[in-house]
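Quick start: read one record
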Amino acid sequence: MDWIFWLIVIIGILYYFNSRNPPKSEKQINQEALQKFGDTKEERYKNIISFFDKKMGKINCDIDYRTNHVRIRKSFERNLKTLDQSERDALVTAYLLYNEEIMGDNNFFISRFALLYGEGSGQPITSEYAKRGNKDINKLPEYARGQNTFPWLLDHFGLNSKAVQSTIYRSVEDAIEKHPDNDTLKYLNKRLNGDHIWSTHEDLEGSIYTTDIDKGYRLGNLIENEIGFVQTDIPVNYDGGMPVMAYAPTGEGKTQCFVLPNLLTWMGACVVLDVKGELYEKTSQWRSRHVGPVYRFNPLDPQNSLKFNPLNEIRNDPDYVFKDAQKLAWHMVVPNSKDHWENSARDVIIAALAVVAENAPVGQRDFNDVLDILTGYDMPLFITQLKAHSDTSLQRAGKSLQASMNDKELNSILSTARTVLSGWSDNNIQKVTSGHNDWSTAEFRSENQGERPPTLYIEINPAEIEQYQSLIRTILGMHFDRLYESQPDHDEKRDVLFMLCQ
């Protein structure tokens, strides 16, 4: 009967170890997850919101599942950066509802599981598997053999991320009806329905929006919804330091509600792409009187346009001539991925710009000379000038051209170069881009603005934008280059508003 004794011993040992390591209940798992955010309800409230909204770090989820044949204990983690905004909002909501004891243990458990696993985005970190009973392991279900456990569990309980999100949001709506004065529910209502709730004056405090008219740029005015959505005289400005896009069909009020108010209140330097000419007409006098000098650049109306010759922005210093010519060429050549010779053509254009800039003083540089080089006329002289240059990049350009002098490839390169710069042979462009400059890009830098910041209006008819896109791209790009050239002193920093209207 020794075998009976040993059987009892083995059963006892198994029972002992099993009782020492019982499966965790949903409540235990939930409480452990919640306690990571603090000891008090108030502390957890702040830490939950901060943790998820910072989008830094990882969060894990534990599973302890038992059937008659198997016990599965697994953990997986989710990088917060991989959560989309809807998943993030749903998780914050679930945690806060559970913290308020509004959401039950089962709902919180399955919410965390479904949202954090996220259709496979959760990464396994631990896995413990134990067979229960004497059933042949090969006859157990696939999930019980440790394969595809998480997808099987989600499917088994009928869970998916989107369905869980809907359930959570309905829970908030139901809870608000029962607890209308609960501060956490008020917060969640605003967080989840922000696009459908009018902001109040108090909501702006500490945000990227301000009622200080001297900060940022104008978005509109606060609306008093208690008296029938009537506009107040309290302005709302954006002060978040990022670009803002106003998107709406033609005639929906972008100019009247956003563009004009900003041009008539912005007291700093400004560059305006004016596709209709109405912005100059309606705001230039005010800006000239109250802000600073106004420059009007209109290639379609040379007689009433100031001049700006991009060649004058190339410095005569041999150490900078290639760098400046390279920047100018990148702006002039509008990218076309279908053109095989574009990069080679750009290299030739850079070399031509550099040679023309060095051979003529500022104010006498002419784009016709650049276009003449690209015809291939007197190419030997051009190559000689490049090879003799002190800049090694220009020397290499000369050697490359010399190597292909009798090659069809050179003709293809020059043909492409002439094509991409064809717009610059236009008579109107020639008139407004030759000779001296009536303003300098350097005027828009903080240290040069003084008490009278400048405003540049670039006027163009919408129907002509494609024809003149190389010119517009160049003028705007060169102003950007100048502003990014170096960091101004902290005390001298001034914002420049680029109002690009289409």
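The chain has four domains: 22-178, 209-244, 257-306+438-500, 312-432.
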